[in-house]
Amino acid sequence: MPNESINVNYSSVKDWGNGFEGEIYITNNGDRNLDSWDLEFDLANEITGIWDAQIIGNDNGSYTIKHESWNREIKSGETITINFVSNGSNNTPQNFEIDGSTFDSPSSYDSIYSFSNPNIGSDLSLGQSYQGRATFYDAANPTGGRGNSGYDIPYGNLAGITAINNIQWNGSSASGAFLLVSGPRQREGAAPIVVQVSDLLYERADGLDLSAEAFARVADPVDGVVNIDYELIGPGDDFQTPYGYTIGQGIVAEGIPESNPWYGAVRLNNHRYPIESIDLLTEGGGTVPLKRGSDNRFTIENGAIYGAQDLLVTDIFGQQVTLYDIDIANGSSADIVTGQQFSLI
């Protein structure tokens, strides 16, 4: 048995001579949850009915069964039962072997609200896998607006967005980050999905609140709360973002309608990696930092800004690109597709 903290036991429930009912107990004695499990065993009889599991293989009495949606996850300290009926004499299943994915984060409805988590830091890193809980929300709901990142994602592209927990949101620094996400469907063979951070999951300190469309690609929506793995990635140039551009077209500067010469403002999207800072380049070769707001808007309020400006943009890994001739004070909502992009790391 691959996981020594998982115990599998069996008992006979009824025997009517030409058939019997048996019960399998699976107990998680470990300190981590077991998710998306399957169980193999040998039985010389034909199973004619089973409850709380599905038979997915039978090779001459070597059975493989898997969870149902309601018992996909076996929490630490929990025992689940599976009943079956079989023809013939009352034989005992042999050679139990169970497999699945283990998680530190419990997927329970009474624990999806948390404002601190000592196990994760605020900075996203490449090559690091994070675990947490995933829920979902109606990203198309007009009362939700554009999300805390301010991105106006087209309705048909909502399967590509997510909100991120209140720690890794990091004052909107995670806005625009691309995450590779795996859930129960991926543990059963589906390809991972890529989502872009467009909102803040205010009430939880781990995991993601996926759009309903994205959640359906990683789990059955009836599950409601599931365990996921996710990691920061840098998409290739041909990747089309939910915003509608490809990464290869470069960083997109969104115009802010309220901007004016005394309130210069800009929001960036379509960047390969999250943005650390934006500085305005002065004619004398100096820089003036723009202030980042909680809505992912960068502003400068020192007055009298006229015409196009050059902006020095730094990502969270220290890479820099210069965006030329960006008018941050003209009150326009138009996008500027810059052609400038961070390199793949």
From TrEMBL:
GO biological process, one term: carbohydrate metabolic process
A single GO molecular function term of this UniProt record: hydrolase activity, hydrolyzing O-glycosyl compounds
Residues annotated as signal peptide: none
Keywords: Signal
Keyword presence, S-adenosyl-L-methionine: no
Pfam families (alphabetical): CBM_2
The CBM2 domain, residue ranges: 1-106
Residue stretches spanning the membrane: none
PANTHER family per record: EXPANSIN-LIKE PROTEIN 7, PTHR31836
Official protein name in the record: Cellulose binding domain-containing protein
